[in-house]
Amino acid sequence: RSNRQRQAWPMEAVLGQVEQLPALLAVSRSALVRDWDSLTLDRALEWARYFQHLYDRFRARPQLREALGRRLRRSQPCPLLGFPALGRCPQLLGLALLENRALPPAACRRLVRSLLQPPGAGPASDPRGLELLARRKAAARLLALPRHAPGPEPQLQAEARLLLSRLRQEAREAAGQQRWLCGAQEGQEAREAAGQQRWLRGAQEGQEAREAAGQLRWLCGALELLPQPRAFGVVAAALALLKQGRGAEQAGDGDGDRDGSSSPDGYQESAAGEECTAGLLLSWLLGNQERFSAFCLCIPSSHLAFLAGHYSQLCRSYLDLLTGWGRHLHYDPLQGQWVKSCLDKAELSWEELRERFICLCQGSTPLKEQTQAALELLRTQDGDFRVRGLSVWTDLLMEVGYSCVDTKATGK
Amino acid sequence: MAQDTTVPKLNFEYWLDKAIEWGQATTLESQKDVCLHLPQLQEFLHQLYETIKHLGPTVAIQQFPLIGQLLGRLCWNPFVIGYDESQKTLMWCLCCLYSSEPQNAVELKANSWIRSLLCHLLSSSKWESNEAETSTFISALGYTSADYYCHLVKNMVVSLVTELRENQCNGFNIQESISASRVNAISIFCVPLITLPDLTPLLETLLLYHGGSSKEILSSEFLEAVNEAFLKKKISLPESAVFSLWLRHLPSLEKATLHLLDQLFSIQLNSLEEVARVIKDSLLPQAASHPAIFRIVNEIFKNALMETDGTPEVMTIIQVFTQLFLQAYQNENKQKFPLKAYFPYHHQPLVRSLVRHPFELPTTYWSQHVKHISDMLKAIVEDTNVSSLTDLFEIWFLVACFGDWLDIAAEQLLKAAVEPDPVLWLLAFYYCPKNENQQRTQTMVEAQALYNHLMTLFSCRDLSLKDLEAAVHRVTGVEQCCNQQLTTHLLTNFLLFSSGGHKIAQECIYHITEITDTSKEVYNLLIRTAYRFNRSGEENQRTVKLMNELLQKFTLKV
């Protein structure tokens, strides 16, 4: 223990410094910068570089990382920045200052010169440098050809990856918090102070609940910044990415922030972390019936089928939703087809409903079986008719049955 | 200073006109035009930066009143911004125009405008309509535009790669196939981005993409630009992609071969290991496993040889290339083309004999093999009517490419018990292929005389320069160049391999090379022999030592 005490002293200084980061960023976005001169700016950028240096030093050391992360979170009203933000500090600060019109000319000039690498430094540029950013922006413009491929568009995917990255970071830090509390608890156990033990356990559970609620609130707030269809697209893309395996994605932000995959606990954490992240996204999605209904109308049916195949909660809710919509159709003998009965409640037409069930049946075998079982149950409940025109579920089953045969024939 | 400013000034209007033209037209033609001008534009921007960097904003604008217009327009052209280092230089130019103490409203406005441009380049932009919401969202997550665009570009690349690859598999499904014009457009848009590492998977996929049509779908600007970047080692591509590039675009292959030759001429040929390394790095020997590529490279080498009047360096390079090509060919596990595909117009048994690697055969069989080659060659050259000079040259070139056998022949003459005439004939043919005026026959006669003389001295332990005087005189006294080369070759071998030769070797060679013009030939012979010894392991340490000493002396001189 005396060893730890000896190490604690300089660490405490570092923790104190790290606490300043949110304030620094806040100031850089505010009108307070109008009093800055070139020297102040230099100092601010030096701080940013120092924070980046801390990141590079501590990223492979989980305990120190968590300590820094915890201190950082404590110093913010709403926990926006975590340990990885230290690595991104020069860009965060630099871009915030660049966009801040209150920055006086002299400081601005100094800023712009510091942001860019000196010319003639050669092509081996810092991957976190800003020239690369300008180049990539141009690349995004050039490659934005009309898309012929299926699946979410690249912009949605990029936003989804960043969202996932952030949520993972949250999960990791929450786990870190847990470990810290556990550690404290074990310490208490050793000293056999039972009352304190109970208190700590309670704190742990309370912490978990608070974390979950807090995260959900935060997620809601973040997604509200996007127009709803886009938010749905991002969440759908994120859920799809989670199931496409670790190989297809990059942990953390794109420039080599492979947090957690280096340490052995990191790997176990990340499997559980994925669960948590998915759970959080699903609770956002399924928690509000209107929202979920809008989501299902917005996202293409094939994509929904993919998600239903991988997330059982979503599958259940989706089937329930489709059931509800199906009930609003009635058979019109004059037209010889199913039509919407009450126009304000019915969302889907017969064709659309059929298409959705067909998509579900083109999914994985468990999904197909679950869908057919659900339809069969509904048919039974509706009178178990085997003739067309009496129960929408009977007719759906017949259509779906045919198309399943068809798809088998084409061998897809 | 005045000189410096006139150069970019001359082109200023030109580039401004170009920038205006590019801004207005969005056709494929104008895009191709941008791509063609990107390297020169980058150079111009660099010169511009060098000119204005010490001037200060006010003076710079006085000298180049249109600079704002130019830079502004260029900043909105994604081809320009995406290219290599243009964005860097452009941003530095903007920095130079930013005043730290604006004196008047105009300067304030200029500052504000520059900041907007920089923001446009680096963060929130008006290029895309939905970017405003995206940037708020990204900030709320705690990320910057740097993170976003990093992911975005990678995703776009993956999306395009998937589309192209799937289309290859669905080759028969016409409805889903991508049109040739789309692939062509993709290749043009990639031109500025070739050196961006994120794009490498897309470059690879494009190079390996084969649509249905027989015409080339990829734009030539793209293929040229990829080749340039590859030759300058600015990008690294998998071998299959490079081979595909060369197979579909002949100018690129030609450029690559000429580039290799330039590289090799510029380095001092100190050791063939170095030469072999450079050649192997170029990927040309490996690519030559495709007969079409082999034949073209061979043609280029032939021309190079003729243009340089057959200098020994070029011949040595060709010989090393051929060895490496054979190595790659023999290591090839997938479908191998028959030898006939590479040497279609030649007598196949001769080709097969030449292609046999010396190290595949036990040394005791070498003389037999050389005799076999010589007999076949003699039959082709003398008995059948090889009328034209071109045909003769072709045969000569074939044999010359396989230098190992020629060198071994000359060695075997002295070291082993051989029938000298076929071997001498082979060497005479190599050094003097033409025979209209009986030059080759004459050379043969000279060589026989020298050989007989040297064989008498071969086992003498103590030789002095005087003993070899007669032989040396044969070398230095003759007029005819090809005689000289052959006799020098024999004499040098004698000095290296005979018991008494090594003591006087240095003196003798010095003497010969002083008088005649054969130092290059001798030098090349020595490095070729050294290279062969390194690979096979010559047992005679004395010879190896002597050779290294001789080479050292040579490198000091040459």
UniProtKB/TrEMBL annotation, chain A:
Domain of life according to the entry: Eukaryota
A GO term from the CC aspect: Fanconi anaemia nuclear complex
Protein's GO biological process: interstrand cross-link repair
Region (Disordered) residue spans: 248-270
PANTHER family the UniProt entry points to: FANCONI ANEMIA GROUP F PROTEIN (PTHR14449:SF2), FANCONI ANEMIA GROUP F PROTEIN FANCF (PTHR14449)
Record's protein name: FANCF protein
Organism: Agelaius phoeniceus (Red-winged blackbird)
UniProtKB/TrEMBL annotation, chain B:
Pfam families for this protein: Fanconi_C
GO BP: any one term: interstrand cross-link repair
Origin: domain of life: Eukaryota
GO CC terms of this entry: Fanconi anaemia nuclear complex
UniProt-listed PANTHER family: FANCONI ANEMIA GROUP C PROTEIN (PTHR16798:SF0), FANCONI ANEMIA GROUP C PROTEIN FANCC (PTHR16798)
This protein's name: FANCC protein
Species this chain originates from: Agelaius phoeniceus
